[in-house]
Amino acid sequence: TSAVRTTSVTLKALGLDSYNLGVYNGVWGGNGDVVESVNPATGEVIGAVQQSNGSDLDQTLQQATKAAKVWREVPAPKRGEIVRQMRNALFEKIEPLGKLVALEMGKILPEGIGEVQEYIDIADYAVGLSRMLNGKVIPSERSGHMMMEVWNPLGVVGVISAFNFPVAVYGWNSAVSMVCGNAVVWKGAPSTSLTSVAITKILAEVLERNSLPGAICSLATGGADIGEGIAKDKRVNLVSFTGSTNVGRKVALTVQERFGKCLLELGGNNAIIVHNDADIDLAVRSILFAAVGTAGQRCTTTRRLFLHEEIHDTFIERLQKAYGQIKIGNPLESGILCGPLHTKSAVDAFEQGIADVKKQGGKILYGGNALRNLPGNFVQPTITSISHDAPVVHREIFAPILHTIKYANIEEAIEWNNEVGQGLSSSLFTTSPEKMFNWIGPSGSDCGIVNVNIPTNGAEIGGAFGGEKETGGGRESGSTSWQQYMRRQTCTINYSGMLPLAQGIKFE
Ligand code: UN1
């Protein structure tokens, strides 16, 4: 069939086979379990990857530690040049990579290509950044002294990423961490291992072509045991973890116990507030992308919608109409807006969520059913009407369920926006400058991402990405996020030939 043909053409274009090794540290290997990748839209097996076991990880960390020592001596702008070559190699394969993401993760093709583009964008950013890892000169209180802030590489960075962004999240970490001078050991989700292998092949080719150690971009595919191995190991100077709040808490405690560094990107429970003065057209279109895009499986997906009472009823009508137009189906077909959920257990979680909505006094305004008659993991994008404080509303369900809630005044809506444990993304639709600036000020949203008149998802790479509270506090991608991948050193140089002490202390 054409689906089978697409799969084999895609794998071939990326140098993959139906069976692949899932460990790379200069050489390819893998002695762990063989894990099959399943197309979530059809249930068909796409290919298989032999994952790493404990000793593969140990070997890989050893190689990465060695590689980091070579890499840190390469001047930062030259490291940027390597990232530039990687960016070009990714760009050449953007089509098949985007297709592989659609096949293996299940998001629609434009979004699959979009996240490869996101990697390309951050690589561009990192190339420029490689000439701007600037320190500071600080005025010293002592004469004949000079103080400087100098940034040095950390060593080895472990990146543990999730199934929902199998390319972009690794890209943010890898590109920035590489120009900062670190070796990276990557563990993606076991269910998207083909994508991890395809990306690593592209990077490895560039490193090897430049006679650099391949272990600068190491891969150790695997499950929770490999993740735990990375968190526990002292050789990993920074653990960058993207995933659930529950697992993130465990990772944070494990890494903290050995005083390692942690960068956490955990759950979101993002809200949009639509005020009575908003551009309704813009808001409806935004919510469609924010709540249904990626079938509700972005950490930035809109899960709560606060509607001002004056526009509530007409807005719900408009939204129901828009949901009625959404085409659900195979993510590789054009015109499809909603692909499958990634796994069967996600469909169970969706159904549990719907049951909880009904139990907790909510109503289903649209959808509400899993499409069990289809071969893949499909569900109906769903709109509910429920109280802001129902327990189910405070839980992140990784599925396209949008809870709608009516409010009377904007202070109340902002309070509800902030009352959940998570603090990733938020957006206000309004045409009032006063409300906009209040929203981004101290009494506004408490999230890491605070938008106006755009969706909660689809952030650009130039800003710092991440959130507060149970979202973990980490910031990735742009702005000063790079500083987390480096050691800050305060250096004081005495060129006076004398020894004046700080704070005017006399010690003689
Ligand atoms: C994620 O869901 O883990 O802002 C990352 C966005 C994307 C990244 C999402 N740029 O939706």
From TrEMBL:
Q: Which residues form the Aldehyde dehydrogenase domain?
A: 33-490
Molecular function GO labels: aldehyde dehydrogenase (NAD+) activity
Q: In the UniProt entry, which residues are flagged as the active site?
A: E265
- Domain of life of the organism encoding this protein: Eukaryota
Q: Which Enzyme Commission number(s) are on file for it?
A: 1.2.1.3
**What EC class is this?**
oxidoreductase
Q: Does the keyword Oxidoreductase apply?
A: yes
Which InterPro entries would you find in this protein's record? Ald_DH/histidinol_DH (IPR016161), Ald_DH_C (IPR016163), Ald_DH_CS_GLU (IPR029510), Ald_DH_N (IPR016162), Aldehyde_DH_dom (IPR015590), ALDH7A1-like (IPR044638)
Under Pfam families, the record lists: Aldedh
Keywords from the UniProt entry: NAD, Oxidoreductase
Coiled-coil spans are none
Any keyword NAD? yes
- Spell out the PANTHER family in the cross-references: ALPHA-AMINOADIPIC SEMIALDEHYDE DEHYDROGENASE
Assembly and binders: Homotetramer.
Q: Which family does it belong to?
A: Belongs to the aldehyde dehydrogenase family.
Name of the protein in question: aldehyde dehydrogenase (NAD(+))
Q: Which organism is it from?
A: Coemansia guatemalensis
